[in-house]
């Protein structure tokens, strides 16, 4: 029996019929009274507290979280499906404000728990079951936490110090405009508008936009560089000198709860595999009929086919790819669709792109797509449904532990996408279509893995160099060397790229954040390679990983499938998948 699938708007009824419904108003009232009751628990929190009482308090907090998530989820989902709707805008803002106020009222639990002595904490955690990891994780920061007056001083000084500096960086760079000539017409563009032309077919225009981008950033290079030096010094002063972390990157590693050795292994393997992408860029140069690719051409379009898949075919391909892996996976995807939680239409005012939002573990997650029929659209559908399946598989955990943590967050999604791509390739004989699909895959892998890994390598070097007194010029020089290592002889790099590092907001806002992209994506490719090698025997272990959600540390979850993320051999497996795709591309005829 075949089901008919139509592109449609999602239904939010499982949350609330509308924001004016009695249900919505009751939920707001109940939340407030639950929080009022919770606040009275403050006095129960002392070292003598019974385990049972403690767990009761935690479950009250869980209920508060569930209710807040539903209200926030409803407001957020409604707004994304209809961003021009003023009622939706107003509700979103109102709920956000409301929840921040309420959250502040429950903060005392968190603070108390982090400061509690270890013996009492161990006693209380012993019977916490599924919540144990969540409780443990909060306390990871205890050894790096200062006394209350010290923390207060840091908070107060941050407002006018670190945070103010970041705001200043944003204020300076957000007002930049870029002048460029497009089709004989002089244009004044924002950075977002400018970078669209990185994918333009005209090589002159591609060069012009990068030159203009770094002309503008370079003009302020000395100031932006100085801000960066200060950010890095602040990071070291606070985290190394005061909080006793042993390296600048270790701060982020602890927040991601991944061992330092695992991140070191990941970055070392990325560095070693730079030649794989260099071969890809050589190939791209040949497709673009030029001797050597320029840095400007990295994202140049090479697509040749305009094959599309109607919505019915797209969904059937995705479900079929999932079915092949495990019928349970396909069933869960079908449940999300049958619950009408997929918004797949292209509509005016609807948010672009795609996402999956798991609001409540007892409900199917909501999936937003803008389905346009390209192979890419189908892959995105597999990706977002993969996220949804991940959440449903982990639904037996608590509201605090069913969401996977950042390093594992792209696991089911990218894996689902790989299953779909393999399914597409296995049934596609047109070399132009095969080539486009593979090019897109390696392009994405470059942007999410290699580029981000070399960013992290830059940060590691920059933090060290600034500690040793490096000038801005020294850092720019090091950045150019970093690019040379990344691209080898495959890509020529204009000197203006010496200013690229001052243009990356992540380096300022959240130092060392970028490696998480590489970590998440390469992890999945490495898992995929294990699947290709091991076949059916790989599946139960993999499903276990997904079922774990965020109930243990990433390393512990992965060890269930006998995966050691601190071993370079594991990460190399991911590059073997990319290498396979590049090899296949190398074997295809060039027109
Ligand atoms: Zn994703």
Structure description:
There is one protein chain. With 591 residues, this protein is mostly helical. It is 64% helix and 4% strand. It has 24 helices and seven strands. A three-stranded mixed sheet has the order 4-6-5, with helices on both faces. A two-stranded antiparallel ribbon has the order 1-2. A two-stranded parallel ribbon has the order 3-7. A hairpin with an 8-residue loop joins strand 5 and strand 6 (366-368). The mean pLDDT is 94.
Q: Short description, anyone?
A:
64% of the residues lie in helices and 4% in strands.
Taking the alpha carbons of the first and last residues, their distance comes to: 43 Å
Radius of gyration: 25 Å
Summing up helix and strand content along with how strands pair, one would put the structural category as mainly alpha
Instruction: Report the bound ligands by name, code or SMILES.
Output: zinc ion
The strands making up the biggest β-sheet line up spatially as 4-6-5
Q: Would you report the number of β strands?
A: 7
Count of alpha and pi helical runs: 24
